[in-house]
Amino acid sequence: MTAKTDDAAVLGYEQARDELIEVVRRLEAGGTTLEESLALWERGEELAKVCRHWLEGARARLDAALAREEPGERDEEGGKGRKGGKGAQNEEG
């Protein structure tokens, strides 16, 4: 890992998201040199990976919690499993 990646890995989700928003704002505003723009892009990619890691971890925790529920509990609440997963969008086209 590089120093930048190590730095990004210790950020919390909200910190990474907020910094990513700022990076995007600066890129969209323009006025930076090519080298500055490339550095901002690279930082944005690292921050996006950090956010994705946190979100994947949150999804895994939710899935684990749902898996621990007894099947009868989900049926009583009217839920028959999770909709909106990775394949849900493909069903509509």
Word description of this protein:
This is Exodeoxyribonuclease 7 small subunit. Keywords: Cytoplasm, Exonuclease, Hydrolase, Nuclease. The protein has helices at 3-9, 13-29, 34-68, 71-76, 88-92. The model is unreliable at 85-93 (pLDDT under 50). It has one domain. Helix content is 75%, strand content 0%. The longest helix is centred in the middle third of the chain and has 35 residues, at 34-68. The termini are far apart. It is mainly α. Helix 1 runs parallel beside helix 3 (34-68) and helix 2 runs antiparallel to helix 3.
The helicity comes to over 70%
| Silhouette | rod-shaped
**Radius of gyration using CA atoms only:** 19 Å
Largest sheet: none
Oligomeric state of the chains present here: single chain
Question: Ranges with pLDDT <50 over ≥5 residues?
Answer: 85-93
Number of distinct helices:
5
What's the structural domain tally?
Answer: 1
Mean pLDDT comes to 80
Q: How many beta strands in the DSSP annotation?
A: 0
Indicate the structural class. Answer: mainly alpha
Percentage beta strand: under 5%
Q: How far apart are the first and last residues' alpha carbons, in Å? A: 39 Å
Order of helices and strands: HHHHH
Keywords: Cytoplasm, Exonuclease, Hydrolase, Nuclease
Enzyme class: hydrolase
Function: Bidirectionally degrades single-stranded DNA into large acid-insoluble oligonucleotides, which are then degraded further into small acid-soluble oligonucleotides.
Region (Disordered): 64-93
